Amino acid sequence: MAKRVILFLLTNLAITFVLGIVLNIIFKVTGIQSQSTAGILVLSLVFGFSGSLISLFLSKTMALRSVGAEVIQQPRNQAEQWLFNTVQRQSQQAGIPMPDIAIYHSADVNAFATGQLKITRLSQ
How far apart are CA 124 and CA 102, in angstroms? Predict the structure, then answer.
């Protein structure tokens, strides 16, 4: 638990540091003062878009790790084969690429899709 918190904090500090460098470059190139309204808007845009994009690109990995899910590469039993065939049929009918399918063991019924592109989506 402590390892995850420390890793989370270090990652956020590193991202903030890199974005700070990017902002300094933007402010120097454009001549915008960092204390001005335009500077605050640029700051908000850079941090807002960066946070959203990072979340989007990490969503698949985070979803898999958070529940300990296993991606089905090759169905191992009849239930997995049924699920695989069902998702494959539905994706073909919808005209989209076959998503990755993952299973995690839980008493709760749950299904969701995540990922930044149709090609890299994950269905659970």
Answer: 5
